[in-house]
Design a protein that fits this description.
Layout (H helix, E strand, L loop, with lengths): L3 H11 L3 H8 L19 H4 L27 H5 L6 E7 L4 H11 L3 H18 L8 E4 L4 H7 L3 H13 L2 E2 L5 E2 L11 H8 L3 E2 L8 E9 L3 H12 L4 E9 L2
The protein binds zinc ion (2 copies).
């Protein structure tokens, strides 16, 4: 069996990316237990049972709703102040082990986690969320400000969106939304300051007349970032915006 040293030599000789070779040569191993997985999923079947399940939630922003109101499908915020995006599809609640995956991805540069999350997203999109429905025309990852991008070296939303676009054969638009103002991390602010913090942080200059767009982000917290991005896309003619996220904070 090929090991990491062989892959390193092959990447040098053939000038290929190591992720591409790793995916090709090594069997996928489970993100949780490390065992081989056999169905191209990043978490093995026994471990899938241990993953947290998104509780009953608002279909528009994925905010958790009390289970006693199981007939209610929209939260009070979306009823009183509807966001531009039509629906939010989130894989998991922001709980262990998802929190650790996001931290390893963003702060320890473990990009294989972005590929794994992207694989899980495309699986859910095809088999559940959009089963029997038309897929969006284009995928747009929520961008980082250039200074944050330089500091981190990559945009986690883009890295998650890449395998989704490849699996679903959708156009990946990397530059449709640009971040023009550096803002404090939304997660570092109290909820009341987040709307103000994100105002005028983005710009969209391209036309999206009649297109259905999927916005991709790693974590949705209050939804202000996605609200601002979808508002700008709709202003540029988009017919509908959906949000695809890996995790929802309650
Ligand atoms: Zn496992
Ligand atoms: Zn809502």
């Amino acid at each position: 069996m090929f090991d990491i040293k062989v892959i390193h030599i092959l990447t040098q000789v053939f000038r290929l990316s190591s992720s591409c070779l790793t995916d090709w040569l090594l069997p996928a191993s489970c993100l949780l237990c490390g065992d081989n997985t056999h169905d191209d999923m990043p978490v093995c079947q026994p471990c899938q049972l241990d993953l947290p399940i998104l509780p009953h939630h608002c279909f528009q922003c994925a905010q958790f709703l009390p289970t006693c109101t199981s007939d209610v499908v929209k939260c009070g915020i979306c009823l009183n102040n509807p966001p531009g995006f039509a629906a939010t599809y989130a894989l998991f609640p922001y709980e262990p082990p998802i929190i650790q995956w996001i931290i390893r991805l963003k702060f320890h540069h473990q990009l294989h986690i972005a590929r794994a999350l992207g694989k899980m997203l495309s699986h859910h999109i095809q088999s559940r969320w959009y089963a029997g429905k038309a897929l969006p025309d284009v995928i747009i990852p929520v961008p980082l400000h250039p200074s944050r991008l330089r500091e981190r070296g990559f945009n986690q939303a883009l890295e998650i969106a890449k395998p989704v676009a490849a699996d679903l054969r959708l156009r990946l638009d990397r530059t449709g939304i640009r971040r023009i103002r550096h803002t404090a991390a939304q997660s570092s602010l109290p909820a009341a300051s987040r709307e103000e913090n994100i105002k005028n942080a983005f710009t969209v200059t391209r036309q999206y007349s009649g297109q259905v767009i999927a916005l991709v982000d790693d974590v949705i917290t209050t939804g202000h970032t996605l609200r601002e991005c979808s508002r700008l896309l709709l202003r540029q003619g988009a017919a509908r915006v959906d949000a695809w996220c890996c995790a929802r904070r309650g």
